[in-house]
Amino acid sequence: FEYGGFPPESNYLFLGDYVDRGKQSIETICLLLAYKIKLPNNFFILRGNHESAGINRIYGFYDECKRRYSIKLWKVFSDCFNCLPVSALVDEKILCMHGGLSPELNEGLHQIAELSRPSDVPDVGLMCDLLWSDPDTSINGWAENDRGVSFVFGADVVAAFLERHDLDLLVRAHQVVEDGYEFFAGRRLVTLFSAPNYCGEFDNAGGMISVDENLMCSFQILKPSSRAARFAVRPTQNAVGPQQGGRGPTNAAESPI
């Protein structure tokens, strides 16, 4: 918010996976929901594959809720996640989702709008693919996903989809990328990952896309903290001044989509 502007001066769209990714999932999702309640026309939250009871029951959110509050709270969050939208369209030209495309998305974008909510994430089908699928540089068309869920798709699928629906860009998340963002299919798809030092185990940067009124996209990079800084002993007293190895954003050059 410090570098992208605090809402409502700037509109925000988040691409999912707010839980299971650290020790304070409850605070993270509650802050996002509070902004959504306060600024419903400026703040948008898409569903990720971890906003699903079957996944976050295993990967940490259930245990956090149970340990800190109650299983009932986890069930309330699950009901909330079942209502989240799975895709967003920016100015009729930029399609966003957590995962990727689906072989079932062959009629039109109205298929996404017609998905029933509230709903669990099914094991197969359009909703599943929007939350789980991945691009793959080594294939054309569609293939099975090594995750064991959904599919992978090639650059040819992206090009054909954008042309068919008169779109300029696909924006998705779902995979850690070293520099915070990574292009695919001739800059027609971008993977965006906004969490630096993913799970405290990686040295990846985080990325954020800013889109202006002319649909000019620029990237802001949240630098990862150094491994030494992450594992250093914390001082017991309050310190004044800049922290070493902190996360400072830098702007990449603007590039039209």
In short:
The protein has 257 residues and is of the alpha/beta class.
How is the topology of this model organized?
Elements: E1 12-14, H1 25-38, E2 43-45, H2 53-56, H3 61-68, H4 71-81, E3 87-90, E4 94-97, H5 110-113, H6 126-132, E5 134-135, E6 142-144, E7 151-153, H7 155-165, E8 169-172, E9 181-184, E10 189-192, E11 206-211, E12 216-222, H8 227-230, E13 249-251, E14 255-256
| Biggest beta sheet attributes | 5 strands, mixed
Based on Cα principal axes, name the global outline.
Answer: globular
DSSP strand content: 15-25%
Q: Order of helices and strands, N to C? A: EHEHHHEEHHEEEHEEEEEHEE
Terminal residue distance: 24 Å
Structural class designation: alpha/beta
Oligomer: single chain
Poorly predicted tracts of residues: 236-257
Task: Explain the overall architecture.
With 257 residues, the chain is α/β, with parallel strands linked by helices. It has helices at 25-38, 53-56, 61-68, 71-81, 110-113, 126-132, 155-165, 227-230; strands spanning 12-14, 43-45, 87-90, 94-97, 134-135, 142-144, 151-153, 169-172, 181-184, 189-192, 206-211, 216-222, 249-251, 255-256. The strands form four sheets. A five-stranded mixed beta sheet has the order 3-4-8-10-9. Strands 11, 12, 13 and 14 form a four-stranded antiparallel beta sheet that branches. A three-stranded mixed beta sheet has the order 5-7-6. A hairpin with a 4-residue loop joins strand 11 (206-211) and strand 12 (216-222). Helix 3 packs across helix 4. The relative contact order is 0.11. The model is unreliable at 236-257 (pLDDT under 50).
